TrEMBL record:
NCBIfam families: GldC
Protein name: Gliding motility protein GldC
Pfam families xrefs: GldC-like (PF19937)
InterPro entries: Motility-assoc_prot_GldC
Taxonomic lineage of the native organism: Bacteria, Pseudomonadati, Bacteroidota, Chitinophagia, Chitinophagales
Species the sequence originates in: Rurimicrobium arvi
């Protein structure tokens, strides 16, 4: 069996908060460390029937970037869901939610204080 590895390295500050995130996937064609400001990592435990998550972001991650990150993540999840289940109708509902989420996030960010 062939194996592939994805490496994620988190640099922490003195309070153990993420200061830098770098990742690589040499077998996947991504050579060298790539910088990132955030990572959402989900794993399905089939035995326990639970989702396990690791959600990290650096101090440099701005709110508008987080809004875009979630919007794009929702859209990607919709595409993955459609491919995995062939339920295109529900995938479109996820995309509709993503659009509403992004509009509200942008509107909230642009609202005068």
């Amino acid at each position: 069996m062939h194996k592939s590895r994805i490496n994620i390295e988190i640099g922490l500050d003195e309070d153990k908060m993420p200061e830098s995130i770098e990742w690589s996937a040499p077998e996947g064609g991504v050579e060298g460390n790539q910088k990132a400001k955030a990572v959402l990592f989900g794993v399905w435990d089939g035995d326990e029937k639970t989702a396990l998550r690791i959600d990290l972001w650096t101090k440099k991650m701005m709110v508008d970037e987080m809004n875009d990150f979630f919007y794009q993540t929702f859209f990607g999840m919709a595409d993955t869901f459609a491919r995995a289940t062939n339920n295109r109708e529900l995938a479109e509902e996820i995309k509709d939610f993503a659009k509403k989420f992004h509009k509200q996030a942008v509107d909230t960010l642009n609202k005068p204080a």
